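dumping this here so i dont lose it again. seq + smiles for zinc ion
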Amino acid sequence: MNHQPFEDWLLNDKLIDPKQKLELDAHLRMCADCSALAETGVALRSVKKISPAAGFTTRFQARLALQKAADRRRRRGHIWPPSLPRPLPGSLH
Ligand SMILES: [Zn+2]
């Protein structure tokens, strides 16, 4: 069976026109090799798409957690409110 140009279309991730897409779909239906390749290609592309977003979400959530922790400390009074003058060391005695 001739797997070209279908393998190229699957591997190179080029834009193919609707007619080529139909040819590719027809070939995938009768070719286990190329449909396996297509599945692998889809999986690879979705990993590439998801990874940066997941990294961003993780970084965003980490920053959010840090901010929340800082807010909690401020509310508990562990951090002196910046609007109030900080007492000089020793002046509380
Ligand atoms: Zn094939």
